[in-house]
Amino acid sequence: MSNRTMDEAARVFADPKAYADDVRLHEALTHLRANNPVAWVDNRPYRPFWAITKHADIMAIERANELFISEPRPLLATAAADDLAKEQLAAGTGLRTLIHMDDPHHRKIRAIGSDWFRPKAMRDLKVRVDELAKRYVDKMRDIGPECDFVTDIAVHFPLYVIMSLLGLPEDDYGRMHKLTQEMFGGDDDEYKRDGGSLEDQLAVLLDFFAYFSKLTASRREHPTDDLASAIANGLIDGEPLSDVDTVSYYVIVASAGHDTTKDAISGGLLALIENPAELERLQRDPGLMGTAVEEMVRWTTPVKEFMRTATEDTTVRGVDIAKGESVYLAYVSGNRDEEVFTDPFRFDVSRDPNKHVAFGYGIHFCLGAALARMEMNSLFTELLSRLESIELAGTPELQATTFVGGLKHLPIRYSLK
């Protein structure tokens, strides 16, 4: 049985500003988990969808990857943006990343980059990551006693890691950061390009295409030992990747590969500042760093949602979902589900088990999860071993978004050894 009456609380999913207001957001999500866990949302300018707020339902849908597929609506966008994306894909200048794909094509494309994120590759990369962590904690010391941790540190550290992995020149890092900010920040007045219109969003995409098309040509002519070369020269069934698939691969690695980690790092530090007893526990017992990193990822949930579309009539928690209808997987809600997490609104650096869904689940589990964990572990291990004091020096600001986001400003006052 389907209830298509809009619950007012469900409007948060169709309001980018809700993600910039933690109190309002979590009040709505808590209400929906208890009273309307499969909620109908019909709120222009978005096409209608079902919002899934319970952890168990999110996991079940992720597992049923033939019944619930990514195409044609892998994430929440306005109807006009959805239509434009289809037009651009048809024209050969759109995005079709791993998050847009379904098996078997998804599995084949994913395999091209997967070796670069396996344990051996992570071990080989750890020396570089540790070096960069020390560099950025040294930078904190040099620019202290105050900084905006997001713009001065959290943005740059994971960006340098992912650009090093791709093998891109350091001169291009600033451009890549700006394009990523504009792509994920289209709903935020501070980040969006110009007026934030569809044309402006398209211009960001075309800039990505121009940059990575040139990179592809270069790596095919002169292969190198980096991830960019592996992507450029990757084969699917003996054939080179299409231009769309090649550029899309770069975009998802270069943008999501650093922006989500930035959000987890900055939000994780804020959680430690707001929970000084947990900060003290972690400094006293660095062996808790592994569980602390998982808790930071759960707490911040940088990827707010993915969407899936039903290939057949089905039901979720007794609610009828018709073939062709879309479901919105509310990861932020799943990660505060009272049935899964004891005292879910408590930040606990020793939380175990911690079955968060911040990296997704199933075939779409985040390709770079191990890298993100390693970066966070390295940075916080370096920072907390040298941190003598820390406090807020202003009001933290969250980004307006419906997809990827977190803190955009975190002013802090601190002293370091």
UniProtKB/TrEMBL annotation:
<keyword id="KW-0408">Iron</keyword>
<dbReference type="InterPro" id="IPR036396">
    <property type="entry name" value="Cyt_P450_sf"/>
</dbReference>
<protein>
    <submittedName>
        <fullName>Cytochrome P450</fullName>
    </submittedName>
</protein>
<dbReference type="InterPro" id="IPR017972">
    <property type="entry name" value="Cyt_P450_CS"/>
</dbReference>
<keyword id="KW-0349">Heme</keyword>
<keyword id="KW-0560">Oxidoreductase</keyword>
<comment type="similarity">
    <text>Belongs to the cytochrome P450 family.</text>
</comment>
<keyword id="KW-0503">Monooxygenase</keyword>
<dbReference type="InterPro" id="IPR001128">
    <property type="entry name" value="Cyt_P450"/>
</dbReference>
<dbReference type="Pfam" id="PF00067">
    <property type="entry name" value="p450"/>
</dbReference>
<dbReference type="InterPro" id="IPR002397">
    <property type="entry name" value="Cyt_P450_B"/>
</dbReference>
<keyword id="KW-0479">Metal-binding</keyword>
